């Protein structure tokens, strides 16, 4: 097996495939290899719709071999260690691989054991997560008979930070259709300080919350679950504030305990698990060694070049970037990585492209309604100028729902996976 590579990519998900496909389109002569252990490739952006019973799970999967770009070598193996000082990646089965340039985009992993009780709870018929098994989410929603429906997320970085609220909006409408909404409390408990970081989109979402009579609790960081008693505990994290100064709401089965802990009973619970970078990243010098980004890949937030190793670049969920971890972000990151690597190949130390922090969160607010939240670094709105000519994407639109359900999956498989529509 070939062990010396001009451009070696770790990860055959959205980041790896988009990068390889775009690079081959720009310069077909570049030698590219992808290390990816899975034979499946998923369009995870549709899992919210799967969890709400309006998209077929099987339609989100394709064989990995079908998305590997022509002329790119695929090594079906696990990367277990990176030694950037020696330009070397060590794999589980195929040994050592030497590279001229390394692109690191292995995604992230669900850290189910970071929250006591979570792993066991996900095996029950009342706890679910679209991040783990969206088909199970739909079963839980269909069988829900009323009571406390709690939606939450961890304080760790997660894929698409808007996803936990998207399924909540859809679930609320599903409860209306099934006739149980009148006997249901829909509770959104988040460690964040607001519903969304960009004001134009937050204003609309706050209207949605008011219309749907959703109960919000901010600064609620989930810390443990008891699946037998059907209870979840949160740590109240608002700075310089104690639960001693708050009043528990008995209507949502909320109780305050010592140490700013909050107990809440649930009849249905949906959550995003804590998430982290893969072990081989966290245990290497590629990761931040301390600080708030500890364990995540240490790259320049504009050039995506590693802070210590100039021939290493990182993108996608694994990178410590102050923007949302989404496929839309990767679509804008991949050309930056590609053009900077090609510039280094051609000119040496010169980088030619910068990333603005663009990301997009298609916020489904109900069946047939969606807000398209596009933004860049510092929570600055960055809506597509063409779409904005026809629609105010900060408002709920049926057209954006059609884009989400039909347009984006088509564009993903037929354009982005082929290195097209990347600008």
Please, how many helices? 11
Counted beta strands: 23
Count of the domains: 2
CATH T-level topology of the largest domain: FAD/NAD(P)-binding domain
The radius of gyration computed from the alpha-carbon positions, rounded to a whole number of angstroms, is: 22 Å
**Structural class by helix and strand composition:** alpha/beta
CATH class of the largest domain: Alpha Beta
**What is the beta-strand fraction?**
25-35%
N- and C-termini, Cα separation: 35 Å
| CATH superfamily descriptor of the largest domain | FAD/NAD(P)-binding domain
Short description:
The protein is α/β, with parallel strands linked by helices.
Notes on the protein architecture:
- The chain is an alpha/beta fold and 423 residues long.
- It folds into two domains: 4-108 and 277-351, FAD/NAD(P)-binding domain (3-Layer(bba) Sandwich), CATH 3.50.50; 112-271, FAD/NAD(P)-binding domain (3-Layer(bba) Sandwich), CATH 3.50.50.
- It is 27% helix and 26% strand.
- The strands form six sheets. Strands 1, 2, 5, 6, 7, 8 and 20 form a seven-stranded mixed β-sheet that branches. The protein has a five-stranded parallel β-sheet with strand order 10-18-11-12-13, covered by helices on one side. A four-stranded antiparallel β-sheet has the order 14-15-17-16, with no helix packed on it.
- β6 (79-83) and β7 (88-91) form a beta hairpin.
- The longest helix is centred in the C-terminal third of the chain and has 21 residues, at 327-347.
- It is globular, with a radius of gyration of 22 Å.
């Amino acid at each position: 097996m070939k062990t010396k590579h001009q451009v070696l990519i770790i990860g055959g998900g959205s980041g790896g495939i988009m990068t390889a496909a775009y690079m081959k389109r720009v310069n077909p002569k570049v030698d590219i290899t992808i290390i990816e252990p899975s034979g499946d490739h998923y369009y995870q952006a549709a899992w919210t719709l799967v969890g709400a019973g309006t998209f077929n799970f099987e339609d989100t999967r394709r064989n990995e071999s079908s998305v590997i770009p022509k002329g790119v070598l695929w090594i079906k193996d696990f990367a277990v260690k990176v030694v950037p000082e020696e330009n070397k990646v060590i794999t589980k089965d195929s040994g050592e691989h030497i590279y001229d340039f390394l692109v690191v985009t292995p995604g992230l992993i669900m850290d189910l054991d970071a929250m006591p009780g979570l792993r066991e709870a996900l095996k029950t018929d009342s706890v679910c997560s679209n991040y783990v098994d969206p088909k199970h989410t739909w079963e839980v929603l269909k069988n829900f008979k009323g009571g406390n429906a709690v939606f939450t997320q961890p304080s760790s970085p997660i894929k698409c930070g808007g996803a936990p609220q998207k399924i909540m909006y859809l679930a609320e409408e599903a409860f209306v259709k099934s006739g149980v909404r009148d006997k249901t409390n829909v509770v959104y408990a988040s460690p964040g300080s607001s519903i969304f970081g960009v004001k134009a989109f937050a204003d609309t979402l706050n209207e949605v919350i008011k219309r749907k009579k959703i109960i919000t609790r901010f600064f609620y960081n989930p810390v443990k679950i008891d699946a037998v008693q059907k209870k979840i505990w949160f740590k109240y994290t608002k700075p310089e504030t104690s639960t001693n100064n708050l009043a528990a709401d008995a209507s949502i089965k909320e109780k305050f305990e010592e140490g700013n802990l909050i107990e809440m009973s649930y009849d249905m619970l949906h959550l995003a698990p804590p998430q982290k970078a893969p072990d081989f990243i966290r245990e290497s010098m590629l990761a931040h060694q301390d600080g708030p980004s500890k364990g995540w890949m240490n790259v320049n937030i504009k050039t995506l070049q590693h802070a210590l190793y100039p021939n290493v670049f990182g993108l996608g969920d694994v990178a410590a970037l102050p923007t949302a971890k989404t496929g839309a972000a990767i679509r804008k990151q991949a050309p930056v990585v590609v053009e900077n690597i090609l510039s280094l190949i051609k000119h040496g130390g010169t980088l030619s492209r910068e990333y603005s922090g663009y990301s997009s969160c298609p916020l489904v607010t109900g069946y047939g309604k969606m807000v398209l939240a596009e933004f860049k670094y510092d929570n600055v709105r960055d809506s597509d100028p063409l779409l904005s000519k026809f629609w105010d994407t900060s408002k709920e639109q049926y057209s954006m729902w059609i884009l989400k359900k039909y347009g984006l999956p088509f564009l993903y498989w037929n354009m982005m996976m082929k290195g097209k529509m990347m600008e």
